[in-house]
Amino acid sequence: RLRSLGYEVFELRSHDLDLALILGLGLSTESYDSSDGGELTYPRSLLQAVLRQERVELRIPVDHELARYDEVPVSALKGRQVVIPSDGHGVALLRPIRELLSDAQAEAILPPEATSAGSERYGLKHHLPVVTFGWFRQSRESRSSTVRRPIAGFDLRTDFVLLAHEGEQTPAMREFITYAVRRHGNAAPRQ
After folding, report:
1. What is the b/e burial string over 128-153, where b = at least 16 CB atoms within 10 angstroms of the residue's CB?
2. Which of 12, 45, 24 is nearest to 88 (CA)?
3. What is the pLDDT of residue 3?
4. pLDDT, position 109
5. Bridge partners of residue 158, in order along the sequence
6. What ranges make up the beta strands (E) of the chain?
């Protein structure tokens, strides 16, 4: 069945789904339930094993002035335009990004196609830095003509996480969770 992104959490909570691998920002149950339920958010109340994390960073054209920094100072963003993804990824995820840019007196630019790939295409075309979650493979053009740089003092991260429903686990579920945790070394299931 074709479903919208973010539906996995609903199905886990209703026990229609046993496990789900998702990318997202973990929120308290209260915050998740009162938020927009964006496609890149999940409630931390579900059984979970974080398999990997990626820091939210900037993808910058190699010949852009900001590319010279190993870590972009917030002050260097002042007066600049920065391409951001849409709030459809989750208001709770985008709020800290918008606040950072506002505090830095930078202008957040929402491209016509505000997906990760669409944002990068827009950034390349208009020679602008782009906020990236770092999960998706870049186009050949983007890999050769941009660099990824963290923003100093901004440590927002998203998770690649295995989620399980909150009920009794079947042997197959336990086996898969054990395999995933073992395969990703530093992961550990947590409630």
Report:
1. bbbbbbbeeebeeebeebbbebebee
2. 24
3. 46
4. 96
5. 54
6. 19-27, 41-43, 47-55, 57-61, 81-83, 107-109, 130-132, 146-149, 157-164, 189-190
